[in-house]
Amino acid sequence: MEPNDLFRKLIAFTASVHQVKHDFSKDLRLDDITPVQYAILEYLAVDQPVTLSEISDCLHMSMPNTSRELKKLGDKGLCEKFAVAGDRRKQAIRLSPEGQAMMDGVFAHYGSLFQARMQRFSPETRAEIERSLDVLQTHVFYTDRPKRNV
């Protein structure tokens, strides 16, 4: 296989992932949460606590826009800032208990749709899918960002 062929498969795969995520979320209604705010909440749910600059960098948002959206989410009671241990000048962001409950509900919804999709596969195929996801996470979709002690 040519290197470009492998890359094209990666692009097709990531596009498919985005389409499946869209399919899972298209009927999900989250009151007055905008798509940008949802992206922040989802990022926090998967990798918290984080800093303002990490959110900004990962979601390709300006720092002022990220700060503004975090303030709105804080006003809605969905996330909270706190001082980083050892450096009170730095702040980290995490989901509030209400935000965590909301995202747990979202992921439960996604999980039920995923489980319904997986039912059509044999146990052997499901095990192969799990192994494939482990390989992709370990070798392709890993992050070099060090773990934080916040």
* CATH topology call: Arc Repressor Mutant, subunit A
CATH architecture: Orthogonal Bundle
| Assigned CATH class | Mainly Alpha
> Based on DSSP secondary structure assignment, what is the total number of beta strands?
2
Percent strand equals 5-15%
Reading the helices and strands in chain order gives HHHHEEHH
How many domains make up the 3D coordinates? Answer: 1
Radius of gyration, rounded?
18 Å
Helix content bin: 55-70%
Q: What does the model show?
A:
The protein has a single domain (26-139), classed as Orthogonal Bundle (Arc Repressor Mutant, subunit A). 63% of the residues lie in helices and 10% in strands. It is built from 6 helices and 2 strands. The chain has helices at 3-25, 35-46, 52-58, 63-75, 97-118, 123-139; strands at 79-84, 87-95. A two-stranded antiparallel ribbon has the order 1-2. The protein is globular and about 50 Å long.
Short synopsis of the structure:
By secondary structure, this protein is mostly helical. Helices cover 63% and strands 10% of the residues.
